[in-house]
């Protein structure tokens, strides 16, 4: 059976004159975070998360912390929707497809609805700017991934989700919860 190639290599043929492939056979070295990048996040907690295929995590929104996501292995789709009333992209969404074999990091600020689906067994790096022990109880509002109001064209239909995520309500419900949390924070 043809193996799933992820390493650049010669498949077949003759080494042609003056043609060469240049790569570091020791492996690779990728900086996955730098303060100097000026991203939206100042991390205070880093987590390594493993997920089985067909698992969906989210959708959540936070009002006090920003997030970082970097897929290290596997294949994932990340959906984001802007729920910041004062943002020029309020009500818009974006869907990303990420591959562990092509490292990329995503950072997004408070007020962005987010969720990630894993097409294959995957591992990712996740960072937050407020520790889970501080935000987990109150600033982890959710919306059901299948709510049409999200408008995110997910490419899956029956994911494995947490019981809590299965009970998430509509985007309208999320907006009410967000207003209540904003009120309690002011
Ligand atoms: C987030 C987090 C979770 N946990 C424990 C709590 C549970 O026993 C277990 C799974 O937690 P949860 O179901 O919340 O994990 P996800 O469904 O991946 O949700 C997480 O990823 C989505 C997309 C979010 O944005 C949430 O903020 C975050 O909770 O890990 C920890 O011990 N530390 C942590 O920082």
Automatic annotation (TrEMBL):
It is an enzyme of class 5 (isomerase). Its EC number is 5.1.3.13. One of its GO terms (biological process) is dTDP-rhamnose biosynthetic process. It catalyses: dTDP-4-dehydro-6-deoxy-alpha-D-glucose = dTDP-4-dehydro-beta-L-rhamnose. It comes from the Bacteria. The record marks 135 as: Participates in a stacking interaction with the thymidine ring of dTDP-4-oxo-6-deoxyglucose. GO terms for cellular component: cytosol. InterPro entries: RmlC-like, RmlC-like_jellyroll, RmlC_Cupin_sf. GO terms for molecular function: dTDP-4-dehydrorhamnose 3,5-epimerase activity. Catalyzes the epimerization of the C3' and C5'positions of dTDP-6-deoxy-D-xylo-4-hexulose, forming dTDP-6-deoxy-L-lyxo-4-hexulose. This is dTDP-4-dehydrorhamnose 3,5-epimerase. The lineage of its organism: Bacteria, Pseudomonadati, Verrucomicrobiota, Verrucomicrobiia, Verrucomicrobiales.
